[in-house]
């Protein structure tokens, strides 16, 4: 009986195996004949599917013979359903027709560069982002793009992270989401910790290096990052993503969408939670976020409402690691108070319209509102009462002038406004003109509270020891045009006028009155040429001007009569890019000439706070090379290299001198010195190997050259060069009843490189054996050694 049953089971298995078939095919655009990358192919009832590759090809295996109902969908195209009979000898070709519904690309067109735009850029789609999106912040996901250096306070890429591009820090990188500015109006920075797991709601993003074409926002002063959130899904879907990794890191994401309802409406939503203990001691992160989008999609009009929010609590690791602990205690955290935390929530509301008027016009308009509020809490040992505007305390005839204090420093701000643009394209396609502009207001309260004091004196809980307000109005209007002078030759021009009114008043955190009002008017022109050859090469050259006002601390820390001058950048870009078959490349030269760039010099104000000062002349010049080559069906290699010089022609450094009875500062003048945090060499490489279908193995390397912690170019105040290597393994299958099951393993820093991409320094003189001695103190933000993240993604 056992033998009979075994033989019967074997026969059934063999029959079942014989009945399993494979279906291969290609999905194309019916109009252009181009392959559609990322199209969804699904077999109804059998519950198996695939996604098309870079050539539009797909393969679905383990199908039962007989009739199969095949459903093919792709954003912007009509869904196709047809019955296929298996087995099938020849490959299937399906041509999808573009949908009559208006697509959403124009929402970001005013901030985007196109193939013929004479500037330097890279566009990254959703699929590429998803390969690394296991919980780390957006800067870390972009680590292998050209000229980028990333860092993380907690050392693991979760929490406070930032990036620089060509040495320009986060406050000089303009960020927009759907064309709406995201940089803080006062500090000019973007804090990705307030946008946890935002990459899970991004359809694509474009990085522009140099001034670029971005037209909204204050920080277009070195690079820009233009993000478009998820676009319409024609079919209902659900997705569950979970990741786990080193340092007790977890990411949980749930996404779902209705697909098109009545061929007009769609709703999409995401809910995320990310937690991590961090590499640095106690540097935990507890991050929550959501994203909801609802839209009406017509043939000529689209209206969308996006609501998204992020709430974070992170333990502070801002102090950094003293140089003395680099060798034996890399996870050291100066802070030990149990609630030394940063707490902030930011809510965003975007109402977006885009429409088509006739055959020649498209329009876009958006209203936005952002509400941010939160604080960071600090334990301060033996702080002077005078620092809080408080009198000394008399106890038993003894005068007490200091005590231990716990304080909170608050931000409570509103940012709102609108942007709009109109696009005209001539019938012959030779003119492409956009007229647009925006107006925005920031209204921010800054205040500090004493929530506890060991010796309270005349204080009450939540007494405000400083309180000030700032209102900033920012408006701009621009006209940009591309004209085809002759076949393949395009002339580009962009004229922008920007005006700023900034008012601030009240008591600063150093107890000084900071009342002031300033106005700026800037003209930012851009011009360029591009030439497209028959072989697919595009040659380009451009000249662009950017002006930027000082940030908040430049006003509040400097005496009001000595406010720094605005910065000015003249940017020249020239290069060639091409994509031909299996090979794509971009070679670019840039020269960024700064006038009145603002830097820290060591100079202090009347209460001892360090201030930024203008330096007359400085520049960044370099060559960027990037390329990608498909060696075979299984092997693809790619990489990029930036070689640059980043110089300040002359500046004066001020060093504190405590070697005499009366405090003073000594001045040192430097010529042709390196700009801080601007490595002369940045390179990365990625090798992808696909040994079998659905399995991808990636080796990723990153090299960053030596960086200086300040502008003195002193070896004793520098960051060592580093070379890291990561491994990424991706396996994707289409099991029954799932559209996709995907496993991702990311092992970072596999050779356990000990490195620090960021830090700070200060020097001072003290009495010494021979008169005085120069002391230099360096602090670093170390990154984790070998660590991993493992993710499971289920799509329904």
Number of strands: 44
Domain module tally = 3
- Tally of contiguous helical segments: 4
Helix share of residues?
under 10%
* Sheet with the most strands, sense and barrel status: 22 strands, antiparallel, barrel
Percent in strands: over 45%
CATH-level-2 architecture of the largest domain? Beta Barrel
Distance between the termini: 42 Å
> Regions with pLDDT < 50 over 5+ consecutive residues?
8-19
CATH fold-type name of the largest domain: Maltoporin, Chain A
**Arithmetic mean pLDDT:** 90
Rg, Å, rounded: 29 Å
User: What is the C-level CATH assignment of the largest domain?
Assistant: Mainly Beta
Question: Superfamily at the CATH H level of the largest domain?
Answer: TonB-dependent receptor, beta-barrel domain
**Alpha-beta content class:** mainly beta
Globular, elongated, flat, extended or rod-shaped: what is the shape?
A: globular
Domain TonB-dependent receptor plug: 116-222
Signal peptide: 1-19
Domain TonB-dependent receptor-like beta-barrel: 329-750
Family: Belongs to the TonB-dependent receptor family.
